[in-house]
Amino acid sequence: MIFKQNKNRKWLTLIYLTAFFLLELMVITNNSFLMSFDHSIQNLFGDITTPFNTELFSTITFLGSPIMDVIYLIVIILFLFKQDKKIASLWIGFLLISGNIISFLVKISVKRERPLQKIIPASGYSFPSGHTFGTTILVLTIIVFILPQIKNQSLKTTLNLVMILWLIVVSISRIYLRGHFPSDVIGSILLASTWWEFSELLYLRYSESIYDFLKLKSNDE
Q1: What average pLDDT score do residues 152-157 get?
Q2: CA 206 to chain CA centroid, nearest Å
Q3: Half-sphere exposure at residue 46, Cβ-oriented, CA atoms within 13 angstroms
Q4: CA distances from 12 to 16, 106, 176, 194, 206 (A)
Q5: What would the DSSP string read from start to end of 32-66?
Q6: Which of 130, 172, 187 is nearest to 42 (CA)?
Q7: What is the C-alpha end-to-end distance of the chain, expressed in Å?
Q8: Whether 62 contacts 170, CB under 8 Å
Q9: pLDDT above 90: percentage of residues in the chain
Q10: 89-117 in b/e burial notation, b at 16+ Cβ within 10 A?
Q11: Is-contact 191 126, C-beta < 8 A?
């Protein structure tokens, strides 16, 4: 089993999902409080706009782009598969494909326009942020499947913090470059966390059928 039973998982899924839907509703209805929040945060970033910061955050946003996240996750999938962790690699593959489909469907259903005065070109709709969604999935994957293999506890703790910091800086880069509103990146983290927890529930519900179909034992992942 790649996940253990946890009675709190259903509640976490419900909390994340409820928070996301409330935020999505505020976006769709152009809630005045949310718009004021977004614009106030954007104004703060406007005060620190410099050529150096623009170059820095442009590099970060490239490294945290959806395409790069897919590449990182494929490398992780291949790494786990080579370690005979077949179920884990298949689960991540399912999460990657289904998660990107869900994120895209939300984008085209909400149809939120991107912020004005973008520093670098960005096409498509704004809510949720594909960069932040993919990076959240990537960070959770590394924390759950890769870092536990490290025996040095202090190194593991440091890398956990680095992963969380990476998610933060990628999110900040999208706001700084005006590719997204702050609420877009918050919504992405909530959506990715919801789908992660729900996918764990799916695995726990159907794991026996999956192992039987693939003729694997529960300790073969």
Answers
A1: 93
A2: 24
A3: 11
A4: 6, 21, 30, 8, 20
A5: HHHHHHHHHHHHHHHTT--HHHHHHHHHHHHHTSH
A6: 172
A7: 7
A8: no
A9: 73
A10: bbbbbebbeebbebbbebbeebebebbee
A11: no
Delimit the domains of the chain by residue range. Answer: 59-211
Count the Cβ atoms, other than its own, within 10 Å of residue 175.
Answer: 23
Q: Which of 71, 199, 192, 62 is nearest to 133 (CA)?
A: 192
Report the pLDDT value the prediction gives residue 220, as an integer from 0 to 100.
Answer: 45
Q: Which of 86, 117, 97 is nearest to 179 (CA)?
A: 117
Calculate mean pLDDT across residues 164-193.
96
Higher per-residue confidence, 147 vs 3: 147
Q: Helix and strand tally (H, E) in the chain? A: 8, 0
Q: Are 141 and 77 in contact (CB under 8 A)?
A: no
Query: What would the pLDDT profile of 90-142 be if each residue is shown by its tens digit?
Result: 899 999 999 999 999 999 999 999 998 888 888 889 999 999 999 999 999 99
Amino acid (one-letter) located at 12: L
